[in-house]
């Protein structure tokens, strides 16, 4: 590969690429980052020479990252599915790296912050290599690997899979750009992690441990109501996928069911309640199973392309469990009646 | 650095798909060509903000900007949580300037609570006033407000649009050309005050019925009414008979109170006649409590021929044919009666059944009744006999609703027991001839279930609304304005304001000074071209003063247009029966308050508001003072400051003085709550904007009178034969004996719930259908709409949650959400007529026609067309009289013989102004002014304008018809008016005692008893 630069330069270059991606995720596209993308041979841009509508892209950025895809490790890997739930772990990584970002308006477990830290560490690694300090470089390499494992690769495949589904439903140029940015981040991090594994003889990236203990709700339990099902489906660490607003809307439209408006939990609850009331629970759950199957296919594809089999394995297990659970829910009419009855009782 | 001394970091890509590895290799090479800017930190360190820039200090005056603040958290019953700045930080609150993003520019605000003015709910708002510029940045919810509890609908925050509307009227204007010509000059407040006050003084010296204050939504309690009372004229002209007269009458005949106050949050069954969940009268406060009730398991039943959002979220939707509602309600009542599942004990104690047994037999249409010995059991037998005809089968046929749904609704009502929350306000009660019986039949269900005033039941407004007394109350006026309540409508709720043009056309009188206040009679009332003719007539309408925050069609025909403030620009006191408690809210001019907090002196609110926009509270004081500068009319003394030292000249009272007295002396618990924080009562209200007077108030009618009379020595309670209790045996009753105990009871003459209405009987309505809760045939019953001939029923008055009558055509956010009012039509009707969605239809009414787009939907009953009533605003000039994005430019023409035409020259459009959003208006259709084509339908009992219209024909529009066209013949208008006037039973013929109106019935400003005497020369006699 004659085009590859030296290791120090490669580290510097990686740092810049991580930095570009971090800026894009945190702030969107502006004139500076647009110039950088053009200088990177039009990376991510569909038509590098044309002038994109920055306002449109900003609106799409807001929609994609604030309303649809939540690029926080905590959303994906914690059982409370909450942004910020992994802040402590990420801050520990940052602290070990000497990376002290101002986090006034973004949480530590935001993907963009992790990429910013990767940028910082890569630059430091480049300097260590340039200075001929292999021990420091190796230490920085291990820190980078750990950061990529926990802050990026643990959840980015599931995020990308949700993004690709979103792009398939909404072909807007802005949406496509931001999903390409996520895909690029996954490729860059996976390829980087793979290189680190080989050079530092590290184990391959592993999936998030939290997924191993996650269980679906017991359908025959007396307190399993529709909310319990909603909680399960909206927790990626349990269901294996991020169910976006667009996914929920798509399910509603496909089955002509009202979902109301508001938070995902509200609309999904409304949708399932309506499905139960109108006898459409089984087809809705079938569609949910199809959605899980598509996500599985997408993630398997990424696993093969990027040698991320072990990192993605827990997600696949969770998706398989979801398929089984959805099927069981669809078949259990008595369960639905029970869940509906519970749901109509006092609010929790 | 050479490759040889590098660690083993060369890319090895085994396992990675080769194209990925190659792509990244190329990228890495390209990345090395980036300039050094690419190496700048992505995220700033502590020295700069996230944008990499040093923190600016604009607007920041001290330390602690970044100090974390514990927010006030409100956990909603549905599990959501909202966070608000804590009140102790309201005077100095810092937020990042959102428009400066991604830079972090701190803005320092003072947060001033006020009360929303965009509907009748009186929700709390919190204005964020920039401490540097005194501009209002935004309005959010006030978490301290007991009614709205921090939440608002879209209309609350949109107050900001109205304040910064580029087209708003900023200065007093006086007409200089002919009325309606559109020529104005700017005048000072002083000039306007002097001229108008002189006209009022001259009128007051000649007569007591020459000044008329025509009010839309009052939006305040007691202040203006006190002013009018002080003028000594019968000058209050309500809008209620185009809004609520039907419901008010029905509730009043039962209870003496004229509004319901359902306790939705605690209900087991919620029965709504209308789209109340989404657009109800107290929309936001009620909606959140309906949701709470539903979350706790309450079932919702909705009557509505239209599939509203409320209907779609209901457990039982009854798409009743308009006018059949009372039949369905009585079928439910009959279900309870025949199964004896009603609350016997409640009926026995609180219903005037004894009067019924003694006085009802023999009245017209009353069947033979098993009155027996006059026992309660005999009354039960009478009930069973009377209502047996109201079967589910009959209800299903009349309402055209599947019988199972009616049965299901009845079962929900039965299961509710004492937790039945019911509500009707506009909808059927104001739609139909006899609509007042809808509220009467609805409350009958509460009476039967014993759910009157109970937890989860339905209270009356007077129990849940608190109106403080003013510091000095002028005596009741001794006058009666024949143009307000003429003898033909002795029972109306209230003044027959929508008939004013018809009365003037008949030669019944004239008006010296006519105030329209936040009211647009020409647009909102039916038969608007009659208003056009009246407003242009300078002989009969001698001076028209429009008090309005924004342009409207009526103001165009005024002599003075005086800009009055929006929610954050005025002082008002408000309370509403939003739930089973009592509260007061204080509307404040927020910029003024912010300036005063900063130590800036402000004498009049117009000094702090945009331009010279003023507020009525100060305006009335100054106007009244000039009306009686020497005090010889006895008016001035009611507006004098109570704090003038002896020997000093009197001076007008200030707002601070007025409200300080009210809050210190007239609101129980407020002074104590204020003292606990080391504040005066006024300072407390300025800080919080509201006060909870009573947390809960259930079954107040059960209170023993004895407890109220502690300290009333020498005035024993003396009951009469009917059980009514009076202090010392004299004066008005203060209670009623119930099982030997004197209890407060209700506000009816019997102080009981009047199932049988002696008032109706005594005032000429003696038939069973009027004296009891019963059905009356609507003017739009199936028998009166010949669908075979193409006639349809026009339902013209459904409401949208995002607009407020005509007043929101200055709120860009609201208009972006909803701006058109197409004709809803069922697909079967659309197929018959041959139109599809978006095509034009011509709807012909009794007096004219309009042309509008059609919206084909299964969400409306076949045979009915429906339109929202908010939209279709217009202006006559290109650059004045309305907002180009929210009004259409129109032309008016007439044939001189009563024919009037409105043509739309240009629909909505974008335009340039200081607000960049006005250039982004993307919609054109701003609706059609349908009300112009509605004939007036005054109900002979309640006086309500029965809004539902017979659409004589609905056809596909012809080639010459254009969207928005309206044509009306006012000769037909008068003919329709006379047809309905013929239905009345005049007090001249039926008054039992020579008075015009039962003295016990409410009036907004009740004159002295002597003024109730019938006129010596009644009009038309």
UniProtKB/TrEMBL annotation, chain A:
Pfam families noted in UniProt: Nitrate_red_del (PF02613)
Name of the protein this chain belongs to: Uncharacterized protein
Organism: Plesiocystis pacifica SIR-1
TrEMBL record, chain B:
Cofactors, names only: [4Fe-4S] cluster
GO biological process: anaerobic respiration
SMART domains: Molybdop_Fe4S4
Organism: Plesiocystis pacifica SIR-1
Main location: other
Any one Gene Ontology molecular-function term assigned to this protein's record: molybdenum ion binding
Protein name in UniProt: 4Fe-4S Mo/W bis-MGD-type domain-containing protein
Pfam families found in the cross-reference section: Molybdop_Fe4S4, Molybdopterin, Molydop_binding
PANTHER family: FORMATE DEHYDROGENASE-O MAJOR SUBUNIT, TUNGSTEN-CONTAINING FORMYLMETHANOFURAN DEHYDROGENASE 2 SUBUNIT B
């Amino acid at each position: 590969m004659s085009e590859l630069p030296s290791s120090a330069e490669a580290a510097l270059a990686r740092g810049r690429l991580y930095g570009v991606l971090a800026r894009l995720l945190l702030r969107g596209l502006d004139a500076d980052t647009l110039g950088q993308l053009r200088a990177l041979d039009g990376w991510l841009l569909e038509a590098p020479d044309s002038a994109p509508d920055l306002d449109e892209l900003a609106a799409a950025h807001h929609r994609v990252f604030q309303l649809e895809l939540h690029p926080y490790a905590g959303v994906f890997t914690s059982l409370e599915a909450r942004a910020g739930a992994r802040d402590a772990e990420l801050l520990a990584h940052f602290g070990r790296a000497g990376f002290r970002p101002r986090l006034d308006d973004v949480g530590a477990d935001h993907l963009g912050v992790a990429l910013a830290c990767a940028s910082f560490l890569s630059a430091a690694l480049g300097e260590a290599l340039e200075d001929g300090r292999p021990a420091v470089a190796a230490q920085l390499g291990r820190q980078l690997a750990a950061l990529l494992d926990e802050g990026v690769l643990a959840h980015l495949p599931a995020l990308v899979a949700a993004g690709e589904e979103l792009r398939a439903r909404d072909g807007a140029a802005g949406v496509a750009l931001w999903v390409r940015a996520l895909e690029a981040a996954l490729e860059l991090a996976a390829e980087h992690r793979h290189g680190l594994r080989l050079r530092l003889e590290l184990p391959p990236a592993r999936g998030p441990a939290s997924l191993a203990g996650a269980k679906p709700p017991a359908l025959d339990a007396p307190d399993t109501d529709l909310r319990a099902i909603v909680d399960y489906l909206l927790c990626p660490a349990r269901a294996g996928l991020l169910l976006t607003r667009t996914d929920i809307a798509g399910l509603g439209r496909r089955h002509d069911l009202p979902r109301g408006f508001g938070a995902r939990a509200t609309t999904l609850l409304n949708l399932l309640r309506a499905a139960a009331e109108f006898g459409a629970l089984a087809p809705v759950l079938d569609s949910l199973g199809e959605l899980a199957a598509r996500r599985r296919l997408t993630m398997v594809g990424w696993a093969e392309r990027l040698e991320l089999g072990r990192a993605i394995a827990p997600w696949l297990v969770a998706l398989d469990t979801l398929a089984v659970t959805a099927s069981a829910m669809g078949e259990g009419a008595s369960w639905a009646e029970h869940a509906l009855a519970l749901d109509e009782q006092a609010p929790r | 650095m050479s490759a040889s001394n590098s660690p083993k970091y060369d890319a090895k890509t085994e396992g990675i798909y080769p194209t990925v590895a190659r792509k990244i290799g190329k990228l890495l090479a390209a990345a090395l060509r980036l300039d050094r800017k690419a190496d700048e930190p992505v995220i700033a360190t502590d020295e700069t903000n996230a944008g990499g820039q040093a923190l600016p200090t604009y607007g920041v005056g001290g330390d602690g900007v970044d100090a974390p603040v514990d927010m006030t958290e409100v956990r909603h019953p549905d599990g959501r949580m909202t966070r608000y700045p804590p009140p102790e930080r309201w005077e100095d609150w810092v937020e990042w300037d959102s428009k400066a993003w991604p830079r972090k520019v701190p803005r320092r605000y003072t947060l001033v609570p006020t009360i929303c003015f965009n509907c009748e709910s009186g929700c709390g708002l919190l204005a964020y006033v920039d401490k540097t510029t005194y501009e209002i940045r935004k309005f959010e919810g006030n978490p301290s407000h007991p009614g709205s509890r921090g939440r608002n609908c879209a209309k609350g925050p949109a107050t900001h649009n109205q304040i910064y509307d580029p087209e708003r009227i900023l200065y007093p204007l006086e007409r200089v050309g002919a009325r309606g010509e559109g020529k104005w000059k700017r005048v000072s407040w002083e000039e306007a005050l002097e001229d108008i006050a002189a006209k009022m003084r001259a009128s007051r010296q000649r007569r007591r019925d020459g000044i008329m204050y025509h009010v839309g939504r009052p939006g305040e309690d007691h202040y203006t009414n006190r002013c009018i009372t002080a003028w000594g004229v019968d000058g209050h002209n309500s809008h209620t008979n185009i809004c609520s007269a039907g419901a008010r009458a029905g509730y009043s005949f039962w209870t003496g109170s004229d509004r319901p106050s359902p306790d939705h949050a605690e209900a087991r069954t919620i029965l709504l006649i209308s789209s109340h969940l989404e657009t109800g009268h107290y929309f936001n406060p009620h909606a959140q409590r309906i949701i709470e009730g539903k979350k706790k398991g309450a079932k919702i039943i909705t009557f509505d021929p239209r599939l509203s959002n409320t209907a779609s979220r209901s457990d039982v939707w009854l798409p009743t044919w308009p006018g059949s509602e009372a039949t369905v309600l009585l079928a439910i009542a009959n279900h309870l009666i025949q199964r004896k599942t009603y609350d016997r004990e409640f009926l026995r104690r609180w219903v005037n059944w004894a009067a019924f047994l003694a006085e009802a037999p023999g009245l017209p249409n009353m069947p033979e009744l098993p009155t027996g010995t006059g026992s309660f059991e005999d009354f039960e037998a009478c009930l069973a006999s009377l209502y047996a005809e109201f079967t589910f089968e009959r209800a299903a046929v009349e309402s055209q609703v599947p019988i199972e749904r009616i049965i299901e609704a009845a079962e929900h009502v039965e299961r509710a027991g004492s937790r039945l929350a019911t509500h009707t306000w506009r909808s059927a009660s104001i739609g139909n001839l006899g609509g007042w019986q809808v509220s009467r039949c609805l409350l009958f269900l509460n009476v039967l279930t014993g759910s009157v005033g109970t937890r989860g039941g339905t209270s009356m407004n007077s129990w849940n609304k608190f109106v403080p007394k003013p510091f000095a109350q002028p005596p009741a006026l001794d006058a009666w304005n024949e143009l307000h309540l003429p003898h033909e409508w002795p029972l109306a709720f209230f003044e027959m304001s929508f008939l004013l043009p018809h009365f003037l056309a008949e030669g019944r009188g004239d008006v010296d000074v006519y105030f329209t206040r936040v009211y647009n009679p020409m647009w909102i009332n039916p038969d608007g071209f009659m208003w056009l003719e009246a407003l242009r007539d300078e002989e009969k309408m001698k001076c028209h003063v429009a008090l309005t925050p924004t342009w409207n069609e009526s103001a165009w025909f005024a002599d003075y247009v005086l800009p009055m403030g929006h929610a954050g620009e005025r002082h008002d006191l408000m309370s509403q029966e939003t739930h089973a408690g009592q509260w007061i809210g204080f509307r404040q001019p927020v910029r003024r308050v912010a300036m005063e907090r900063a130590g800036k002196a402000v004498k009049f609110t117009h000094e702090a508001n945009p331009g010279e926009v003023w507020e009525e509270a100060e305006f009335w004081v100054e106007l009244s003072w000039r009306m009686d500068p020497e005090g010889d009319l006895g008016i001035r003394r009611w507006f004098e400051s109570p704090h003038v030292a002896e020997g000093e000249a009197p001076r007008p009272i200030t707002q601070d003085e007025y409200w300080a007295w009210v809050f210190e002396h007239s609101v129980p618990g407020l002074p104590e709550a204020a003292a606990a924080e080391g504040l005066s009562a006024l300072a407390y209200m300025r800080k919080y904007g509201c006060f909870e007077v009573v947390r809960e108030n259930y079954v107040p009618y059960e209170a023993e009178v004895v407890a109220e009379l502690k300290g009333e020595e020498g005035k024993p309670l003396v009951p009469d034969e009917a059980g009514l209790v009076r202090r010392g045996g004299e004066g008005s009753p203060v209670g009623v004996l119930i099982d030997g105990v004197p209890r407060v009871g209700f506000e009816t003459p019997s102080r009981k719930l009047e199932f049988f209405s002696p008032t109706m009987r005594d005032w000429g309505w003696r038939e069973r259908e009027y004296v009891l809760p019963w059905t009356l045939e609507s003017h739009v019953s199936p028998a009166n709409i010949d669908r075979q001939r193409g006639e349809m029923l026009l339902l013209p008055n459904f409401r949208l949650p995002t607009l407020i009558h005509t007043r929101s055509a200055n709120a860009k956010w609201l208009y972006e959400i909803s701006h058109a009012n197409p004709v809803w039509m069922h697909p079967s009707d659309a197929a018959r007529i041959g139109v599809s969605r978006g095509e034009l239809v011509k709807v012909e009414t009794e007096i004219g026609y309009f042309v509008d787009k059609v919206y084909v939907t299964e969400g409306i009953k076949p045979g009915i067309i429906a339109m929202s009533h908010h939209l279709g605003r217009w202006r006559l000039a290109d650059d004045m009289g309305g907002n180009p994005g929210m009004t259409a430019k129109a032309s008016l023409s007439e044939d001189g013989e009563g024919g009037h035409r409105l043509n739309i020259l240009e629909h909505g459009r974008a335009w340039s102004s200081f607000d960049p959003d006005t250039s982004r208006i993307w919609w054109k259709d701003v609706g059609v002014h349908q009300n112009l084509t509605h004939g007036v339908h005054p109900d002979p009992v309640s006086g309500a304008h029965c809004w539902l219209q017979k659409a004589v024909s609905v056809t596909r529009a012809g080639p010459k018809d254009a969207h928005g066209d309206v044509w009306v013949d006012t000769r037909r208008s008068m003919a329709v008016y006379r047809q309905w006037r013929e239905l009345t039973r005049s007090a001249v013929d039926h008054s039992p005692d020579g008075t015009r109106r039962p003295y016990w019935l409410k009036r907004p400003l009740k004159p002295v008893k002597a003024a109730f005497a019938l006129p010596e020369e009644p009009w038309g006699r």
